[in-house]
Model the fold of this input.
Amino acid sequence: MLAVLRRGRHSHTKALLFNRRGTGRRMFAAVSAWWRPAGENKLKDAEHEMIRHEVAEYSSLKVGTEDNFINTVVVPSRSKEENLPIVMAHGYGSALGMYFRNLHPLSEDYKVLAFDWLGCGGSARPKFKAESTEDAENFFLESFESWRKEMGLDQFILMGHSLGGYLSTVYALRYPERVNKLILVSPVGIPRKPDEGWDGKKKPLFIKVARKFWEWNFTWQGIVRAAGPKGPDLMAKIARKRFPKEEPETVERMATYLYQTTAQKGSGEYALNHILEPGAWARQPLCDRLPRLQVPVSFIYGSHDWMNPNGAKDVQPLLSVPNDLYIVQGTGHHLYFEDAPQFNRIVLENILGSKPSPGGSRGNV
Done:
């Protein structure tokens, strides 16, 4: 009887502890949700809000394992022709939903697949362990190649914006048989880092501080997360300042979406310091790698783009593949949605509708 009573007391104590732990977890979850109002479901809702206003029919997929999946949106082609699909890769700090004005127009003749790089957007957020540029590139490209295999894509047209353009270029260099055409939208990392002109001079304090933060992998996503419940307001202010020409409703949707992509667990964002130096100069510049490219390539920049097209212009004569360059007038770095009709027309008519001649042909639109 004594033994039974002891077991009963022990079971009762365990139940009390379990209940207290359960209550503690719920309280912690409630406080966490208040402090950082972000989550996977909220991100998917925000992504849907971004896309549904422009695209009537699309499917959303998780491709891969539960701990290592790639968030994907597929828009079926509205054409009866059997064209190769277009795969769209976003840039740093962005996600697939920012292509909301391109998905439907490009699907007029092509099946369109937009995806989030591993550790970004709505994709899985594994711990980032890279220690070199090659490690950082592998983090993204190995998972992308696994995604390609699972999606059953033998060959496709690859479009990448900014850091997505850099990664798309490295992928095309590794797997030229998979990429039919490479479209680089304001890609980062083409030119070499110029001489800073500080030889024999003392660098200003703010430059030293900025470099230290870069070396410590201090990201703006971390700032948003640290802002806690003020994070959504902070992102709304950034969105209003960054996209002043957009309608208020559109800016609100973008701010909500970008907050949700930014406030998730840190992962792929930590690759920036391994791939780029301060000032967004590539540690392994593409100008030294692009001459080995084996697939046709097109460059597109905005006329007010902070990414200078001169790096692409300088490398064009070194290319042995068909290539061309376009400037979208009146747009900046996010030209693909700042003037989506003009951008989509360039892609569909100028780049995919005709074969550019080799030797560095250029076009201004």
